[in-house]
Amino acid sequence: MNTTKIFEALANEKNETDISRRDALNKTLKLGLKAAIAAIPLGLSSIMSNRAFAQTSTPGVVDILNYALTLEYLESEFYQMGLASSGLVPSSDMNIIAQISKHEDAHVILLKSTITSLQGTPVSKPNFDFTAGGTFADVFSNYQTFLALSNAFEDTGVRAYKGQAANLLADKAAGAVITAALDIHSVEARHASEIRRLRGFKGWITQSQANGLPAAIYAGEDNTMQGGKDVKTITSVSADAITEAFDEPLTMAQVLAIAGPFIKA
Predict the structure, then answer these.
(1) Among 20, 65, 153, 221, which residue is least crowded by beta carbons within 10 Å?
(2) Phi-psi category of 36—alpha, beta or left, where left has phi over 0 and alpha has psi -120 to 50?
(3) How far apart are CA 148 and CA 139, in angstroms?
């Protein structure tokens, strides 16, 4: 089954406006990736139809697990290829990257097993293009590019899992699945923090600062509304600190906009 179609079938948020490159990308880019990032085809028109966004049905548990499995396939293969690229990962970071890779492999195994136990069929691993059509041609020869994409995938993964929490909670039979998802979610958050630190940034997200990555990954992270309250009005803590204390979810449609360019079929 074409993996892009999985995202299309599951996207349950209406696309009110087309996502443009100007809106989706950060104009201030670092690590020599400015030209590369600007070329990412984040616009959804080339990879999915408006009809998919108009769907209002809630995805089922197996659908959500296959969605998560696709993201875990992406991360698992990304780290495997990075570790197999001679001279890419410095010896000082090798143990960290190797351990993250093992975690991602284990996540794939767990999700496939869980889907099968629910009488579902695990989606096949798609073909990935981690250069995004040549945009990141040096991803496996330039360690800073590799880390930047790792950062993008990990931060996206954390928000993607959170984005499906409500759908899992709505299914009364999904108790064990929720536990498995939370087990993975917390580890993905640790990955994201570790990779951010390897890049020289804080381990948590401040406001919606993209640090050289596509702005779509951090859209909404500057939110200070929690539990129906604007936290700024009930504390003297700075807005920066407030946003660092909370992560915001991403919808399936938003995740597709970020991951789509790296999925070939």
Answers:
(1) 20
(2) alpha
(3) 9
Q: Structurally, how many domains does the chain consist of? A: 1
Does residue 169 contact residue 178 with C-beta atoms inside 8 Å? yes
Three-state secondary structure call for residue 229? strand
| Spatial CA neighbour of 150 closest among 162, 167, 136, 166 | 136
| Full domain range(s) for residue 11 | 3-262
DSSP 263: B
Could you give the CA distance from residue 262 to residue 132 in angstroms, rounded to a whole number?
Answer: 5
**Are β-strands 225-226 and 229-230 bridged in parallel, bridged antiparallel, or unpaired?**
antiparallel
Say what the pTM is: 0.78
CATH number of the domain to which 209 belongs: 1.20.1260.10
> For each of the chain's 265 residues, which pLDDT tens digit applies?
444 444 445 444 434 333 333 333 333 233 333 333 333 333 322 323 332 333 345 678 999 999 999 999 999 999 999 999 999 999 999 999 999 999 999 999 999 999 999 899 999 999 999 999 999 999 999 999 999 999 999 999 999 999 998 888 887 767 778 888 888 999 999 999 999 999 999 999 999 999 988 899 999 999 999 989 999 999 999 999 999 999 999 999 999 889 999 998 7
Q: Residues of 168-183 as b/e, b for ≥16 C-beta within 10 angstroms?
A: beeeeebeebbebbee
Q: Side-chain half-sphere of 70: how many Cα atoms within 13 Å?
A: 30
C-alpha 163: how far from chain center: 11
